[in-house]
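Why do we care about 3D structure at all? Because function follows from shape, and shape follows, mostly, from sequence. That is the central idea of this module. The next example makes it concrete: a single protein chain, its amino acid sequence, and then its structure expressed as tokens.
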Amino acid sequence: MQGTKAAIKETGRELPHILVVDDEKSICELLEITFRKEGHRVEVANSVDAAKRKLESQIFDIIISDIRMPGEDGVDLLKFAKEIAPDSFFVLMTALPALDTAIAALNSGADRYVIKDHNHIDQLRRAVQEVSESLRWKKEAGYLRRELRRLTGLDNIIGQSPKMRAIFDLIQTVAPQTSRVLITGESGTGKELVARAIHENSLRAQAPFITINCGAFPETLLESELFGYMKGSFTGANENRQGLFQAAHGGTLFMDEIGNMSLTMQVKLYRVLQEGKVRPIGSTEESDVDVRIIAATNKDFEKEIAEGRFREDLYYRLSVIPIQLPALRERREDIPLLARHFLERFRKTMEKPIEGISPEAMGKLEAYEWPGNVRELENTMERAVALETGKEISVRVLPERILGYGGAAPAAQGIEIPEEGVDFEKVVASTERFYLQAALEKAGGVRTRASEFLKITYRSFRHYAKKHSL
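And the structure:
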């Protein structure tokens, strides 16, 4: 049994949590022993009432229940479970098979119907095994990267400057460890890409990589996202829901913009990091979680701590291994490499015969300060490829802020209108969308802050966001 648990922990995979319900204690004991030997967490209940109480306080992946029991029966429990925990896999058992009972069970939403005979244990084991595989593939399909990884898994982080080579070396050094990592740097420097690279080079690579932007949620909603909740714990909680800590069990949780987290939530996060346990909102029971935390922020933590906006003890819990990402203006030698990389990507997706970037356009890109860093360069290249009608990216498709940067001649003088003309509304719309996205990123997804950065009303921001499907 110890060997099985060790194997599960090594692969970073949690087997399904099982609830067994039967008024015969011997059946409950037999199934509990059977599935615990295989590494499952197992709870038992000898009545429908006892099972309901467990369902109201815990989340189960699989429910195995007898049909005929004193009082309410297994079909009643099935209906209750489908209301409170619709994602649970439900197996009904019976020692008295009858066609009408089987039809009623399946019509009520049972996933499997098993007759208690000489091989019903094997049938149940096969059903549980199928659910285990289904859950594993669901997690991998939902959370792992869709693209093939090269040997190092660092191919999406572009750079050859000394600062970036040092970052690559650091990623490969810290990835196999389990220590928490704090990534700092300006918005748009690629903090999530670095977090993904660390995960993909770690022993947890086959387990979930889950991300959350802590600045995009109000305090109460952030708590329910991270820790989950039980049905009825607050208005709108119509079913049990697993939190991101539980969903990331065995894997990595990337907490972006953690500097925007409230002090109340900081206390709750510190407790989870200290004890390795989470308790869903509305539950009385805690569950163990094995999650590697990678946090990121664009804030100056020394200033945040000094001004009382961030807990010093939590900072030290998070920053076991700090990684500081350089701004794009601090590694200008990477700008041509990045620009060509984005050109190639968008040229293919838009199916445009653009072969390169003109020397004049590249000069403008290299001279610009890039306050939005790599993300701003990516958006700029996407816009340029969309607007370019020639064989190479020219200065006429670069934004005004880049053309007019550094005291150059007014941008209008650098724009050439081709003989066939330009789609003025498309150019304006592209520029609007770019600034909306940049403001949202700078505001950590908070729209009221984004509208302030653009010096427009929140109502106007909502109008533009809807217009551009943001």
